[in-house]
Amino acid sequence: MSRKKGRLFVISGPSGTGKGTVCRELLKEIGNEFSVSMTTREPREGEVHGKDYFFVTRETFLENIEAGNFLEHATVFDNLYGTPKDMVVNRLERGRNVILDIDVQGGLQVKKAMPEAVLIFILPPSLAELRRRLEGRGTETAEKIEKRLGQALNEIRLIGEYDYYVVNDDLDEAVALVKCIMAAEGAKVPEAVRPVIREYENESKQK
Question: In angstroms, rounded to a whole number, what is the distance separating the alpha carbons of residues 134 and 148?
Fold first, then answer.
């Protein structure tokens, strides 16, 4: 069999569900790569261009929008953020799976731009557990936590737009389930099956 193209996996979920941790575990697997976003904000101390983000000027970012080179993009606190399409496609063509950790709205933009993307929603066991996790961080006020919980519920209402969901109650089990989803997607019969059949027919004729 010839080398398969990689697949784009979008991992989304409310803040506090552990989607970032799930993604870090997935990146330990050979063949999985992380999609690096482009941004107009200044690098923070320790951040590396091309590893944490692609740091560009606003002019460069707008040129990429004009060229249609974003799977998704958004404005956050006066800074622009986006997922470069050309870099994702290049990795997929090389047979690498690309993992994108992004919010739900961004995930839906990606699905519209690249319908073959596989969307996985990470859920908390309950809103009460999500509250406990957010409070456990000790970094936000009670008012901000309530706001995050409200946002989480709004995001959960969009779960029907996703392909799969995984409840992150136990991290190891959640990661194992996502790996199973990725493996199953990799073994799907492609829509354009004729090239696959032709490979076997040609091999048969050579015997």
Answer: 9
